[in-house]
Every structure is written in structure tokens, then in C-alpha cells.
Specification:
The protein is an alpha/beta fold. The chain has one domain: Glycosidases (TIM Barrel), CATH 3.20.20. It has twelve helices and ten strands.
């Protein structure tokens, strides 16, 4: 008799043992651990991800790696190549596909801190006239959420692609996650290169440039999907959707880009929208266990109710974690728990989502 997880994938019409060139059907996304957390995280891979048959692990690396191509962009404490190879070995042991992420385009700052790329290369800043505040608040007169690099700066891609290639080689991967979520600064009126440009075309061009670079090395591009949703017309809002017209890029990007469709405040069914546009899509919960249950049920229903052509575009479920690896592991193992969070935690959502997969398997 096959395992419960295998029966779940039979139920949704997918194979649990797809080859490494094919997208998997269950994912886990979290910040890459710092060196001091590495052993605990590898234990988590062996004891928690593998038994749940998690097929793909996405690690948000950003600058948490000892880059040789641009050592000036390393975090002060960062994973070594040897550390990464330990992660590769642990994942390979369980046939878990390992995909690194570096935030490209947006998320080049956070709160009052400019992150490494724009700190070292301020000339890449889309909005250099917007100064980082001593104390960050939202909303603010500058509309500052996170800084972006200018996609039309002539020097930016040489730097970021060196990082992308190096981290993909280190992780021995056939895919790369570029982030690209919550891009508020794009085509800014004060940018000498981008001013007056169509924001949807700017966003789509950047997606396609990254996609084409990866394709030259037989790698696939993954991104978050929020900038491709019309936040105003749908009522989804400016965080999980776009208010600056980038949503029209959905018709301009390559169809082999994998879309990670995150919704954390409601279980919105936009996976159907992406699939209808010809894009493969993954549904991504975070910290609301009840929503994760509904989203998992929706994924099963979508696959059962659509045409064979559409069916394979509904790729499955991905638990996302938006703390560092250390705080998540502390929460998961009960080392440090915030009593004010109640049931709405990433670790509880993780357990609940995979519990629902098991329940659906048993019901079938």
C-alpha cells in the first residue's frame, strides 16, 4: 500500500515522484539558517520535512552566503560553501529539491535599513532622493515600503547575475527564486531612466531578463505572484495585489515562470486566475491554519474540476515562514513561544496544512 502522501497526490492527479526537472507538489519556504542554526535546521529536514514528503525546500539566502564573486555584499555572518553543501547533502538524501532565493528588484531595504546591494552600490537605487528614516512608519509621505533597484541601470544585472549564478552553482539547483514581491517603487517619476515608462512593461521586462539568463543555464525562474494581481479591481489590496499597474505584466511574461501565489489575510482563489493565464501556480499560506485547510481543499478541488490542460498548472501547496530560521525552529520545538500568537503561528500552520493533506489522503 502506498503512503498517505502518495495517495494524496493520486487524489489531486499528480505524481509524488516527479523527476528533478519537474515541479514538485509540496514545498516549504523559509530564510536560510545562519551558521549557528545549521545543525538544528538539518535535523528539521531529516525529522520533519522528509517524513512529510516535502519535495522542495526554498531557502531565502539573499546575502547570507560567503560570495566569492562579490565578497563586499556578504552579510557579516554568512553561510560558507561547506555549510551549503551540508544542506545539499541532507536534501539529496531525501530527494528534496533545493532552491535558493535572492530578492531581486524590490525588497532592497527593510524598515530603516538599506540592505547590502543598495548600501554598497547606491547608484542602483531607483529612488535615491528618498532617504531612509531613523524611525520607520507606514504610511509615510514618500510611500516608502521597501527600496527597489533600477531595472534599467546599465550596471545592475552584471552584479546581481553574478550572485545568482554563484548561489545556484553552490546549491546545485535547477531553479532560482527571485522574490519580486511588493514592488512599490518602479518607474518612478524622478528616475532618469524609468520615468514615464509603463510600469507593467518594466516589471515584465525584468522578469523576462532574469528568466532568460537562467534559461541559458537550464534553470527555471520562480517569483511571488502579488504584482501580477490587480489589487484595486479585485479588492485584494496593495500588499497582496498591485496598485501601481504592474498587474498587466501577467500577459507579458514567459509562461514557464513559476508563480508562488501568497494570500495570508484571506484564502483568495487567485490560483485559478494564474492557471487561466497559462502559468503554473503554487498556493502559499503562512500563519492562519484555518486558511491553510481551505487553500489545500481548494487546490484539490481545482485539479479535479478543470480540463487536463489546466490541471497540471495547479502545482500544489507551499508553507511559507517569514521569521528567521532560528525563531521558527524555537517556536516549532517549543524553545520560545509567543503566548499572544494563539493558534496563528507559522509552525501551527505547517502542522495543520500537512495534517489536512493526510486527512484528504485517508478520506480518499
Amino acid at each position: 500500500m502506498c503512503c498517505l502522501h502518495c495517495r494524496f497526490f493520486q487524489y489531486i492527479g499528480a505524481s509524488p515522484n516527479q523527476n528533478r526537472q519537474s515541479p514538485a507538489n509540496s514545498w516549504f519556504c523559509i530564510a536560510a539558517p545562519q551558521p549557528k542554526q545549521l545543525d538544528t535546521f538539518i535535523k528539521f529536514i531529516h525529522e520533519e520535512l522528509a517524513p512529510r514528503q516535502v519535495n522542495t525546500l526554498i531557502l531565502r539566502v539573499d546575502f547570507n552566503y560567503e560570495f566569492d564573486s562579490h565578497p563586499e555584499l556578504r552579510d557579516s555572518i554568512a553561510l560558507s560553501k561547506r555549510d551549503v553543501k551540508k544542506l545539499v547533502k541532507a536534501c539529496r538524501q531525501h530527494n528534496i529539491r533545493l532552491i535558493p532565493q535572492i530578492n531581486l528588484l524590490g525588497h532592497q531595504s527593510w524598515a530603516s535599513k538599506t540592505t547590502n546591494l543598495l548600501r554598497v552600490y547606491p547608484e542602483f537605487d531607483e529612488t535615491p532622493q528618498v532617504k531612509m528614516p531613523e524611525k520607520y512608519v507606514w504610511p509615510n509621505p514618500d510611500g516608502l515600503y521597501c527600496k527597489s533597484y533600477c531595472p534599467l541601470h546599465p550596471g545592475v544585472h552584471a552584479v546581481v547575475f553574478a550572485l545568482v549564478d554563484e548561489i545556484c552553482d553552490a546549491f546545485e539547483t535547477d531553479a532560482f527564486h527571485a522574490g519580486m514581491d511588493e514592488v512599490f517603487y518602479i518607474g518612478h517619476d524622478a528616475c532618469p531612466r524609468c520615468s514615464g515608462r509603463d510600469k507593467a512593461e518594466l516589471f515584465a521586462d525584468e522578469v523576462n531578463i532574469i528568466r532568460n539568463h537562467l534559461a541559458e543555464r537550464n534553470r527555471k525562474l520562480w517569483i511571488w505572484g502579488d504584482r501580477l494581481i490587480d489589487g484595486k479591481t479585485t479588492g485584494i489590496g496593495l500588499w497582496e495585489g498591485s496598485f501601481n499597474n504592474t498587474y498587466r505584466a501577467i500577459d507579458l511574461i514567459a509562461k514557464d515562470v513559476m508563480i508562488c501565489d501568497w494570500h495570508y489575510e484571506r484564502p483568495d482563489q487567485t490560483a485559478v486566475y494564474f492557471a487561466t493565464k497559462g502559468l503554473s501556480v503554487i498556493t502559499c499560506p503562512w500563519r492562519k491554519p484555518g486558511f491553510a485547510v481551505l487553500q489545500t481543499q481548494d487546490m484539490v478541488r481545482f485539479r479535479k474540476s478543470v480540463t487536463p490542460v489546466m490541471k497540471e498548472r495547479f502545482q500544489g501547496m507551499m508553507q511559507t515562514v517569514w521569521s528567521g530560521a532560528g525563531p521558527f525552529l524555537d517556536e516549532f520545538y517549543g524553545v520560545k513561544v509567543n503566548p499572544d500568537s494563539g493558534e496563528d503561528t507559522a509552525s501551527n500552520c505547517f502542522r495543520t496544512m500537512f495534517g489536512e493533506i493526510k486527512r484528504l489522503s485517508e478520506a480518499n
